[in-house]
Design a protein that fits this description.
This protein is of the alpha+beta class and 400 residues long. It is 66% helix and 8% strand.
Length: 400
């Protein structure tokens, strides 16, 4: 059974991560990636040990789990929340494992013995890793409490949680003027073996971004592994961070980084709102698997963000609207892409052909073929159809 689970480790750990976040309100959406990484590392170790018949007593948690424990410190979460993650995660894994045992073992006596053995074993594993995880948490909390970064992070957390702040005093402590017009950004990259070195490197990249946008005194704070939050004050209200940072694309690509921007906002409320928008833009970028060097602005993905709040419902909507066009074949993908561009170009065969670099007769043929499969003219319910086509592309990227 353990051997059979190995190819499914990614999907099982993703399911566990979703269950953990659904059960624990203290975990924010931007922590899901780290939750998934920790869950996958733990389950990989569990499966390997079960396969080899290794006693869980004395086992040490994997590196990803230790990084995850330190992340709780950086976000101001208590150790009880960390232990709660393991309690929920254990329950989610046990349900998956129990179903597999029931499917694989027909003999009731052997099944009962297997259930008793695996139950004791998995509880033993959680007990064994809890001690080292709590120790790592405490050590990181002591180190973090002594750092200036922690003080800055606590001030920022107070603002983001909507608690009242003295704007003048907080600005002085942060060395960043809160009363101005802000643009928030989130810069992130790929995980490395050394989380601290990665955080420092991305902080330098973030500073370069701020300097390119004309802000000499940005507010930059690391948030987990290879993720940096930042705020800059704009020289002018109509400044465009995407256009201004075009020259940084090669630099971002070299650092294997991506960046998401919120919209400009004034004062403390704008500080919060722009940050929330930047986090949402990052979520959509992750969903669409944007390439390294990508720059994403909230205003450009606001509709996609709204439509993908509930992915399961989004998939049902696409299947309902597009029917056979949802099939995962090259032919259907071409029809979907052509139809989306056709509608974006105001139902113009000429403009669509120009964008797709094909003859306009080809566009006309594909649109007619799509209409035949849909069972109605594409102009009927064009808005609903366009939304479904947009979602179809996003969901396909998410599932690749």
């Amino acid at each position: 059974m353990a051997e059979d689970v190995v190819p499914e480790l990614d999907s099982i750990s993703a399911e566990m991560a979703q269950a953990i976040h659904a059960a624990m309100d203290v975990l924010t959406e931007d922590m899901l990636e780290d939750t998934h990484a920790s869950a996958k590392a733990n389950i990989s170790l569990v499966v390997a040990m079960l396969r080899d018949g290794v006693d869980p007593a004395g086992v040490q948690p994997p590196a990803e789990a230790l990084h995850y424990a330190r992340e709780f410190v950086h976000r101001g979460l208590p150790v009880e929340a960390l232990l709660g993650v393991y309690r929920v995660g254990h329950g989610a894994f046990w349900q998956i494992w129990l179903e597999r045992m029931r499917d694989a073992i027909e003999n009731r006596e052997i099944l009962a013995e297997a259930i008793a053995y695996c139950s004791a074993w998995t509880f033993g594993y959680v007990d064994a890793v809890s001690g080292p995880l709590a120790t790592a948490f405490v050590h990181e909390k002591e180190r973090w409490a002594r750092s200036a970064v922690a003080q800055r992070a606590e001030e920022i957390r107070t603002i983001l949680e909507g608690r009242p702040v003295d704007e003048q005093r907080t600005s002085q402590r942060l060395r960043y003027e809160l009363g101005r017009r802000h643009v928030a950004f989130v810069l992130w990259g790929e995980e490395t073996a050394d989380a601290e070195d990665a955080g420092s490197a991305f902080a330098q990249v973030a500073a370069t971004v701020a300097n390119t946008l004309g802000c000499a005194s940005p507010l930059i704070v690391p948030s987990g592994r290879s993720v940096v939050w930042g705020w800059i004050t704009l020289a002018s209200a109509d400044a465009d961070p995407i256009a201004t940072t075009a020259e940084l694309v090669p630099h971002l690509a070299k650092a294997r980084a991506r960046i998401a921007f919120g919209e400009p906002g004034l004062g403390v409320d704008g500080f919060r709102r722009s940050h929330a928008e930047a986090l949402t833009a990052r979520r959509v970028a992750l969903l669409g698997q944007r390439a390294v060097g990508a720059r994403v602005r909230f205003d450009d993905i606001a509709l996609t963000a709204l439509l993908t709040t509930d992915l399961a419902e989004a998939r049902r909507y696409v299947e309902r609207e597009l029917g056979p066009l949802c099939e995962e074949t090259d032919a259907m993908r071409r029809l979907v892409a052509t139809l989306r561009v056709f509608l974006e170009e105001g139902a113009s065969f000429v403009r669509a052909a120009r964008r797709l670099s094909v003859h306009e007769n080809t566009v006309a043929y594909r649109v007619k073929r799509a209409a035949d499969l849909l069972g109605h003219r594409v102009e009927e319910g064009a808005l609903r159809l366009h939304v479904a086509l947009l979602l179809c592309e996003v969901l396909r990227r998410a599932e690749e």
